[in-house]
Structure prediction request, 331 residues.
Amino acid sequence: MNNYLASNNPAIPANQGYLFSLHTYKSFSAQRKQIRQEEKRKTIVINDQDFAAVDIHVILEDVKNTRFNRFLADAVQHMKEHASNELVQQALPYLYALNEKTTAYETLLDFPPLSVSLPEDGELLVEWNFEHFAIGISFETDPEQSNWYTVNDGTVKKTTQWGYLSSQAIGELMNKFVAQITE
Amino acid sequence: MIPEGNYPPTFLRGIPHKGPQYFDNQGDVLGYIFRPHDNDLPEAGVFKVSINWEDDATVEDFTLKAKKDDGNLHYNGGAARVSLEKINSMRQEPPYVGTVEYQRDAIRGVNEYHGNLLLNEDRVRGSSRAAFFRRLKFTVIDVIPPIE
Prediction:
């Protein structure tokens, strides 16, 4: 628990820091519980079956109202400002799913922010870079060419994998990513 | 078999500019600095990517001051310093065995330090592309800023 945690929790005013009474704490605690319940109700669980069945526009509508967690927020904003609409639409469902998977760690773990780059016209590279490993997705104008990876620098026991997005269900991919960053 | 003793511990890879092709939204260099140019063709399944072996303390300055025919600097994005030890470590990992080699390729009278990274064509393309370049990024020690 630190100031960053307190000031970034929507249920706790930024200027409160640690200095609040037990009564206030209980009040905040109740608010947080309510927020968690509301967020749970809003959550769309994207797993293999769901993604195949859900219209992508439904997902994008939900993305519009999503508060991206602090790991992803800057990257999503940068992507929307600089990448083509075609690539943004391809990427958003994945970032939404990653957001859903990682928001629980927002106040618990000191992850770096997600990185975004545009290494070529028609290419959007989203990477999450840790000291000894990284996960990433390269979105291409031709979605069949879009690919993902988990790699490491050889000093840690992590899995090296890659493949085309088209042959990887989004739910399974998110599970691979989360396994990499939390194991 | 590469004669390891003939190589210094580091080499430099020039970065043409500071644009989003080579740096992410946080200003970190991308592994795509090792990507061959679009018009480069592989020879016998290998792409050559130019580097300068850091044989002495002058190579950094030599690289950063390199100019194109029009008089402009070659590397307005600076240069990445790469660890040969890290490259060799990568070459021994099962996913990358046989995918990365290197050589000296001095251009007599022009660039005695010149060499190449030799990258397997199959890794540079297809589903392994982003993974391969990201793995190469782990071999970068630091990025030397360009001459202003």
Notes: The longest helix of chain A spans residues 22-42. The two ends of chain A are 22 Å apart (CA to CA).
